[in-house]
Amino acid sequence: MPLVNAKEMLEKAKAGHYAVGQFNINNLEWTKSILLTAQELNSPVILGVSEGAGKYMCGYKTVVGMVNGMLEELGITVPVALHLDHGSYEGAKKCIEAGFSSVMFDGSHYPIEENIEKTKELVATCNELGLSIEAEVGSIGGEEDGVVGAGECADPQECKMIADLGVTMLAAGIGNIHGKYPENWQGLSFDTLDAIQQLTGEMPLVLHGGTGIPADMIKKAISLGVSKINVNTECQLAFADATRKYIEEGKDLQGKGFDPRKLLAPGAEAIKATVKEKMELFGSVGKA
Ligand SMILES: [Zn+2]
Predict the structure, then answer these.
(1) How far is CA 133 from the centre of its chain?
(2) Phi and psi, residue 217, nearest 5°
(3) How far apart are the CA of 86 and the centre of ligand 1, in A?
(4) 20 to 30 Å CA-CA from 248: which of 30, 83, 160, 192?
(5) CA of 259 to the centre of ligand 1 (A)
(6) Number of domains comprising the chain
(7) Is the residue at 175 inside a domain?
(8) Local structure of residue 110 (DSSP, 8 states)
(9) Model-level pTM?
(10) How far is the centre of ligand 1, averaged over its atoms, from the C-alpha of 169 (Å)?
(11) pLDDT tens digit at each of 288 positions of the chain
(12) Within 10 A of 221 (CB to CB), how many other CB atoms are there?
């Protein structure tokens, strides 16, 4: 099945009170592991590509070629969206041209008026081409240069202004953070989430920084309108752990253990296990 936009899968998720996982990809192994797991579990899935990862994989056209090739060669029949994660205005335009089926425009660092202007323009382009588009209000915290941000809470009124522009899904800061959560993290602000959902109604809401949020908080967030949850760091940690174990056990020195197809296999399996765990938690298993 060719790539689809994320609109239908997220509307179904919102109505059905579950969430679709966005799993970020970094290379072939990542992409293959995520696609095979989605297919095995009969779950819709969103492949996320950050601008940095896009650059690493030799550009958006390479990513589109790889993903489209895999959908065909692996016989993937579940709905798959290829989505730009935290895109700049220019990045979003490049992905639209390259053949992505979905983009995120992160204008959260602009003043709200400018965020609205740019989001509006990209919404028009995406609507015309049949792509889905995610916008963001209130920046999401995270560790940058050793400084840990607390995770800002979005203004629900601003969320409504952006939602009304016709975006497909809306990311709003509710105290969530990218990367590992600090020990003194205050948790998600469900009051903020509830207020945002009250004002935005049917709009599927997106929870970024899904790594390390306790399962009960994830479930509560889903019950309050979160229909898309982004997972990135957790797959990276699982991959690194499994790869380290393989090397530490000296397996790369046994026989042909140095063959990259063997060396990267435990990490690829670890990604599959992480994706499976998340899809079960999010409730998207069997919803393709
Ligand atoms: Zn994010």
Answers:
(1) 13
(2) -70, -35
(3) 6
(4) 30
(5) 34
(6) 1
(7) yes
(8) S
(9) 0.95
(10) 13
(11) 899 999 999 999 999 999 999 999 999 999 999 999 999 999 999 999 999 999 999 999 999 999 999 999 999 999 999 999 999 999 999 999 999 999 999 988 888 899 999 999 999 999 999 999 999 887 777 654 444 555 678 999 999 999 999 999 999 999 898 888 888 888 899 999 999 999 999 999 999 988 889 999 999 999 999 999 999 999 999 999 999 999 999 999 999 999 999 999 999 999 999 999 999 999 999 999
(12) 22
